[in-house]
Amino acid sequence: MKISDFPNFNRGDPPQMSEYKGYLKKYKNEDIKRRFADFNFLLFVADLLGVGTSITMAQCIANNIPHDPELVALLN
């Protein structure tokens, strides 16, 4: 993982949609592979869109495979 700014799930209140939007805004100019490379962000995506989506994103990051453009548009 390349970024670790997204709020942790196991410390305090769980992350909210406002934190998700703030995270995306903060890293909007980053390459998608770096932008999505935060473990807690991927946990939030798993909670939001399902574990399969989060696993696919992690595999794309790990294997340097481009993300599905429709998924990127949905996440933005």
Number of domains: 1
Order of helices and strands: HHHHH
Span between termini: 20 Å
Shape: globular
Percent of sequence in beta strands: under 5%
In terms of quaternary structure, what is this?
single chain
Number of helices: 5
Mean pLDDT over the full residue set: 90
Helix content: 55-70%
Instruction: Count every beta strand, where a strand is a DSSP E run of 2 or more residues.
Output: 0
What integer value in Å does the Rg equal? Answer: 12 Å
Structural class by helix and strand composition: mainly alpha
Residue windows where pLDDT falls under 50 for at least 5 positions: none
Sheet with most strands: none
Account of the 3D structure:
This protein has helices spanning 17-26, 32-35, 39-49, 51-62, 69-75. It has five helices and no strands. Helix 3 (39-49) packs antiparallel against helix 4. The chain has one domain (17-75). The chain has 76 residues and is mainly α. The chain is globular and about 35 Å long. 58% of the residues lie in helices and 0% in strands.
List the helices and strands and how they pair.
Layout: H1 17-26, H2 32-35, H3 39-49, H4 51-62, H5 69-75
Helix pairs in contact: 3-4
Question: Notable features of this structure?
Answer:
mainly alpha, 76 residues, 5 helices
Task: Give a quick rundown of the structure.
With 76 residues, the protein is mostly helical. It has five helices and no strands. The model has no long low-confidence stretch (mean pLDDT 90).
